[in-house]
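User: Could you go from structure to sequence for me? I need the amino acid at each position, not a summary. Structure tokens:
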């Protein structure tokens, strides 16, 4: 290896001497691009394996990635183009029935051939390739080279050697999988499910050459062990997989390449660079193979890194720009991959779905493929799914009716409960009439009030509404009368709750969860634990008398709500408020009959629910809002949330409104589009009960996708309805729908078409006049 840097970066500060650790696609492509941009660079790639020694078989690349390659290096693009196998279809085999969806557009080639192309390009450009050679330690390379690119894979030694700087977080998952190959070409991307005596197993298969296919076999860890795979050697495992999936393989054998069963590990790093060393590809991040992302991400990393090194004047600026550009893309991909991974982990939940719904569910599992773009790709398949739903002809899924007890909702859109902090002494006023009335006129099937508090001490802030006085009931009756009179067909629901330890705080825009400067009232909770120690006040733990008083406060509020003519009542057991505080082990540390086991933690919320169900009219539905996870270690788990939902349904809940978090201040939510919906999905498909999905559902396409896939029955949207009170009507107009699921109020009908934004009748240019 050369000694310390002799020449150093070029006068503009760009690196001249570059070391690449790892000869996979990402490392090779980065080396080729950087050398092509500046032929005088000295670039060396270290790879401990032989040139033709690779793991896995086929590689799938998207048109987007190929476009980037074509722009950056036409030579590599043309070589890849000559090798690609292309196809459009996805076949999903569900209990012996094959369902095909077309129009997807895949391109694949063998991983070995991809490496050959990149190796040839590197040699032609003058990159030094050192195979069968361990790279020197990254710190040693960093002292001798201007730039060190660590493309040394998921088990990156570079990342581990400098873990204190990169701060990696590596998460294992619940399935085992093995990479295999078959000596024939599937004619589609194929998903096949095997329901065995040991549990569910799945095959992912796709062609990568005219006579070869990649085959991945995956199953839950407990299924893998029950089937005895943990005791089989490599060849016996391969033979066993071929036998299980004989139908998919046409009774052909499978082959391996040092294949072993492994657990997928999601790699996340807080930082991607340290000094002049940068992580690339799997060393920096991984995303589950079920969305075909590993090589794609690595190649795109290489494109971005080379461009940033060329564009920026200093290496530090280049590495910072590379991470700024790539991190949002990678995080989005990792969210999609996590959704896909979890879907396959929970595959057994969906097997009883109707075949086409199951196929639609699988295709939209990552939330990147949606109802609308699937309809563009394959309108025949999507139309069949809609008919099975069933959607009347010309009716989007979101505009189909849904019944809860005696209440029929004309569509599946809910205006989520949103605290407005605009009441005076708990009294809703003109603001609430206009706010809720506008959203009722906006077309939603159900409009929910904010959390209406059952006592003055149960308010979150001085601006929260209540239902603990006759005057408040009169004011709420004004709202319900308006909705029923002016927006017939729209239901209005009331959400009852008590703030618990999260009360006596400022209005949201004055300091969310901050205690009042003065005028604080005492707080009550399951246990004497402040929301934030040293900031929020310590609540007193409720004794038997206190529990009885609060239960009676809920009962009185429900009695008033019924007389206000609300159509639905929801009990708020989420977000760390009083009843949620009983449910979570992080906030309930009682040692009596109301603490400890989940059954005990459920006791008081169920007592309250039972009282309300006895008061609430029997033909009107009741729902319960829960936090399905606390997003914190030791808190409520997804499995416990199913049991919580099961208990409320057994006591008469008609639907579960599934939210998450806001229970403890130290939570770490996994934010992203529709990020809470998997918890609703799990409850619905485990228990077979109606659920309301919430959580960053922002488009009508999301709503249609969730409903058709069977992940939710109703979708609650909050911020979109703040942005646009007529969100539902506009969603209907944008989809060309004008049926009974979204009727425009008579005074608004003239506005039911989007107004023109400019001239569209300008004279067209004529070539003959040029």
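Assistant: Here is the amino acid at each position, in order:
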């Amino acid at each position: 290896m050369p000694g310390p840097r002799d020449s150093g970066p070029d006068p503009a500060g760009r690196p001249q001497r570059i070391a690449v650790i790892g000869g996979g696609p990402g490392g090779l492509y980065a080396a080729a691009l950087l050398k092509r941009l500046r032929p005088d660079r000295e670039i060396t790639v270290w790879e401990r394996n032989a040139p033709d020694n690779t793991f896995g078989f086929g590689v799938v690349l998207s048109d987007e990635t190929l476009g980037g390659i074509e722009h950056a290096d036409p030579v590599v693009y043309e070589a890849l183009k000559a090798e690609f196998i292309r196809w459009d279809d996805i076949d999903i085999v569900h209990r012996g029935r094959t369902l095909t969806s077309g129009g997807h557009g895949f391109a694949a080639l063998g991983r070995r051939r991809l490496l050959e192309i990149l190796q040839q390009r590197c040699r032609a450009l003058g990159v030094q390739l050192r195979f069968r050679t361990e790279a020197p330690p990254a710190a040693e390379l960093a002292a001798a080279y201007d730039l060190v690119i660590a493309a040394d894979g998921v088990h990156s030694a570079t990342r581990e050697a400098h873990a204190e700087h990169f701060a990696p977080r590596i998460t294992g998952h619940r399935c085992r999988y093995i990479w295999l190959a078959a000596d024939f070409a599937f004619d589609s991307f194929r998903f096949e499910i095997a329901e065995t005596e040991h549990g569910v197993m799945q095959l992912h298969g796709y062609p990568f050459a005219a006579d070869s296919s990649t085959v991945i076999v995956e199953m839950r860890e407990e299924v893998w062990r029950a089937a005895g795979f943990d005791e089989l050697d490599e060849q016996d495992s391969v033979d066993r997989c071929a036998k299980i999936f004989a139908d998919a393989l046409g009774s052909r054998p499978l082959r391996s390449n040092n294949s072993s069963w492994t657990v997928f590990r999601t790699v996340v790093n807080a930082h991607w660079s340290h000094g002049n060393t940068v992580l690339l590809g799997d060393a920096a991040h991984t995303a589950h193979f079920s969305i075909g992302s590993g090589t794609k991400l690595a190649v795109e990393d290489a494109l971005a890194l080379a461009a940033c090194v060329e564009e920026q004047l200093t290496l530090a600026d280049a590495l910072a720009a590379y991470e700024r550009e790539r991190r949002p893309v990678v995080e989005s991909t990792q969210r999609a991959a996590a959704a896909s991974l979890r879907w396959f982990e929970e595959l057994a939940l969906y097997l009883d779905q109707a075949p086409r719904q199951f196929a639609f569910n699988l295709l939209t599992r990552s939330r990147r493929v949606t109802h609308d773009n699937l309809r563009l790709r394959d309108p025949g398949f999507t139309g069949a799914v809609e008919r099975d739903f069933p959607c009347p002809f010309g009716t989007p899924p979101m505009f189909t009716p849904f019944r809860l007890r005696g209440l029929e909702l004309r569509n599946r859109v809910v205006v989520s409960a949103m605290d407005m902090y605009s009441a005076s002494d708990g009294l809703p006023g003109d603001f609430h009439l206009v706010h809720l009335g506008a959203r009722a006129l906006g077309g939603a099937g159900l409009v929910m009030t904010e959390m209406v508090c059952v006592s003055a001490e149960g308010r979150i802030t001085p601006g929260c509404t209540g239902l603990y006085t006759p005057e408040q009931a009169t004011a709420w009756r004004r709202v319900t009368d308006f909705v029923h009179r002016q927006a017939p067909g729209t239901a209005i629901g009331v959400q009852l709750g008590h703030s618990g330890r999260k009360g006596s705080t400022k209005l949201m825009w004055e300091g969310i969860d901050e205690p009042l400067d003065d005028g604080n009232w005492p707080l009550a909770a399951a246990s004497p634990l402040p929301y934030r120690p040293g900031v929020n006040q310590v609540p007193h733990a409720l004794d038997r008398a206190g529990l009885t008083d609060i239960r009676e406060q809920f009962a009185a509020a429900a009695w008033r709500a019924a007389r206000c003519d609300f159509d639905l009542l929801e009990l708020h057991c989420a977000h760390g408020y009083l009843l949620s505080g009983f449910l979570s082990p992080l906030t309930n540390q009682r040692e009596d009959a109301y603490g400890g086991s989940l059954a005990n933690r459920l006791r008081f919320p169920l007592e309250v629910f039972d009282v309300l169900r006895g008061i609430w009219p029997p033909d009107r539905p009741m729902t319960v809002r829960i936090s399905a996870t606390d997003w914190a270690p030791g808190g409520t788990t997804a499995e416990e949330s199913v049991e919580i939902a099961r208990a409320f349904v057994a006591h008469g809940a008609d639907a579960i409104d599934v939210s998450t978090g806001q229970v403890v201040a130290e939570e770490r939510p996994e934010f992203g589009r529709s990020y809470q919906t998997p918890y609703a999905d799990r409850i619905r498909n485990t228990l077979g009960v109606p659920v309301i999905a919430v959580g960053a559902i922002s488009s009508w396409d999301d709503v249609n996708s969730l409903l058709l896939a069977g992940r939710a029955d109703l979708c609650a949207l909050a911020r979109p309805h703040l942005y646009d009170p007529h969100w539902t009507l506009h969603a209907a107009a944008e989809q060309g729908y004008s049926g009974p699921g979204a009727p425009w109020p008579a005074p608004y009908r003239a506005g039911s078409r989007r107004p023109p934004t400019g001239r569209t009748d300008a004279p067209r240019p004529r070539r003959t006049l040029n």
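One structural detail worth keeping in mind: The longest strand covers residues 168-182.
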